[in-house]
Amino acid sequence: MPVPRITHVRTLEDDAATTWISRWWPTLYEADPRATAYQSPQWVTAWLRQLPSTSSPVVITVADEGGVSAALPLARHRTGSTDTISAPTPYAEYNDLVGPGARHPHIVQALAADLDQLLHDGQNPELAHIPLHSALGRALDGRSTWHATRTRTALVPLPLDWEALPGNLRRQHAKRERRVRAGHAITYARTRSTGELLRMQPELERLHAARWAPAPRLSTSQPDWGAVLSELTDTTAFIATITIDGTLAAAQLCLYRGTTCWSLRPAMNPGAARLAPGHLLLRRLIDDLSSHGFTGLDLGRTAETDGQTGYKEQYQPRWSTALSLTPIRPPRPAAGQVALATSA
After folding, report:
1. From CA 240, how far away is CA 248, in angstroms rounded?
2. What ranges do the domains of the chain cover?
3. Taking the alpha carbons of 298, 299, 301, 305 in that order, is the dihedral positive or negative?
4. How far apart are CA 71 and CA 55, in angstroms?
5. What would the pLDDT profile of 223-239 be if each residue is shown by its tens digit?
6. CA nearest to 254, candidates 50, 43, 97, 35
7. 289-335 per-position pLDDT tens digit
8. Which of 149, 159, 210, 244 is deepest in the core (most CB within 10 A)?
């Protein structure tokens, strides 16, 4: 039988969490090549600085005999008399345990047991967008203490062989190209420096607001994306754009690490909808990334609608699953049952 490994789980909050993340998170991230750009020090720091006054940083660390092996950054969000411990931001497409031991069973099981203990202690932990294929996702999936909601995610392997696509998809892409090339000037670009990134950010937000104006996102406070991108810089992020006849028609914020790119915040000009600028931009982005040695473009979580699923299916992605977990609490006994149990 395997010898049990000794683990120690520690939860830090407020200034202690901020200090720990500032000092140690970059080391854990660099030691974990599977961690996504959504776990980068730049991303984590940017969103900790965006926390409202009703929220505070939390980090759970897991150590064994070799020292701290993995950690999970969270935040405590206060709403009235209720506290919820969850991800620092809803904008991350993926959240996961990070560190050289993030896939070691004894580390993951120790964290899962600690989360169960938080439930037992009356806390309200929630975990959003954990990849099911990750060690943490597998450890929490099916656990009796959690209710899991599944969302499909799409990764386009690169380079994409357009000629190998099914005939109907090739015809759809070709039809869109013919339509937009008929009398229109098309320019594709992506930012190459932090200055370009920050100058393009307000334009992306303008497009995003125009696209979603009929159904604005409900939120008590909107993030300062300029401040977020100032933290990310060109080492972690870029914005890709398409202009049609000199007018910005589509823009897309992307994060990247190594040879993988993550699409985060696509925005299209509703006035150019007939020319399908989102597809126009995505096709050129795919070819651009492929020519620079990227091996995957992650299109993120996908709503089960014809619009989102059908849109991404046209690029023949590999589908995976992300879990969002909320606690399952036993029903409270009726007053009579409590009295009976007390008298017994």
Report:
1. 11
2. 8-152+323-327, 159-294
3. negative
4. 19
5. 999 999 999 999 999 99
6. 43
7. 999 999 999 999 998 888 889 999 999 999 999 999 998 865 444 44
8. 244
